[in-house]
Prior knowledge:
The protein is an alpha/beta fold. The protein contains ten helices and seven strands. The protein has helices at 18-29, 41-51, 71-85, 109-137, 158-178, 196-204, 206-209, 211-223, 229-239, 265-269, and strands at residues 9-13, 33-38, 61-65, 90-93, 140-145, 183-189, 250-252. A seven-stranded parallel beta sheet has the order 3-2-1-4-5-6-7, sandwiched between helices. Helix 2 (41-51) links the parallel strand 2 and strand 3. Helix 1 packs across helix 9 (229-239), helix 3 (71-85) packs parallel to helix 4 (109-137) and helix 4 (109-137) packs parallel to helix 5 (158-178). The chain starts with 8 loop residues before the first strand and ends in a 22-residue tail after the last helix.
Amino acid sequence: MTISLLGKVAIVTGANQGLGLEIARRYAAVGASIVLCARDSGSLAQARTQLQVHQSDVQVIDAITADVSSLSDVERLVGHTLARFGKIDVLVNNAGIYGPMGAIEDVDWREWVRAIEINLLGSVLMARAVVPAMKARRAGKIIQLSGGGATNPLPRISAYAASKAAVVRFAETLAEELQEFRIDVNSIAPGALNTRMLEEVLAAGPERVGAGFYQRSVKQKQSGGAGLEQGAALAVFLASDASNGITGKLISAIWDNWEGWPAHVSELASSDIYTLRRIAGRDRGAAWGDK
């Protein structure tokens, strides 16, 4: 699939490293102007320098140091983008942290709340800030990064799991709220990535994250993980006109045949497939559990 984002303006949060940086790199390579956002100004400046090698005469690679959980920072970031470009076509909510690891009664409560503030409230603040400009143009793409916590329990990493489930349901809800404005909102499950967050799990050790999760993380480290490429490729697709009308979905970069979805937009729109839903007894052959 050949995709161009020429003329598009995108904000990518958490863009100083890992998947966020790879998404920004892919966006730059296919013509988008990008505003990078992260809390660490030093690594953010390095990321901008890296991406400028992809920049053409009609592109701009900008960088704003900001904390997505801060209302004033978010307003400054979005205001700067609109002042410079006059529009925002794409928002990628990638910024996120694992938060504290350990039993819920043992972890630092302030750290637990901080993970919710960044992962969930930061995503909501960013979406809330860009929506008015997208509504005015009756076009836009909001892309939310999910994670394993959205679809599976993660014992001892509860703040991350709770926040990721919440952002997916928020994305589904926002998608319905914005559908009449032709603004598509989707979540990406990028797969198990060997990024900074994996190193945090390994550093925490089996006592804090649990023996099973720790061993799976060790194997992931050894195998190389899912790689950044598929998650970034999906983010490019969802930013492009090729994905128009695909909205309110939680999409696996690894397991879903998303490149073929444009041929099934009507079916996707009329179905709850690829969304978070309750599993009833009848769904698993347990006839005794349902009326």
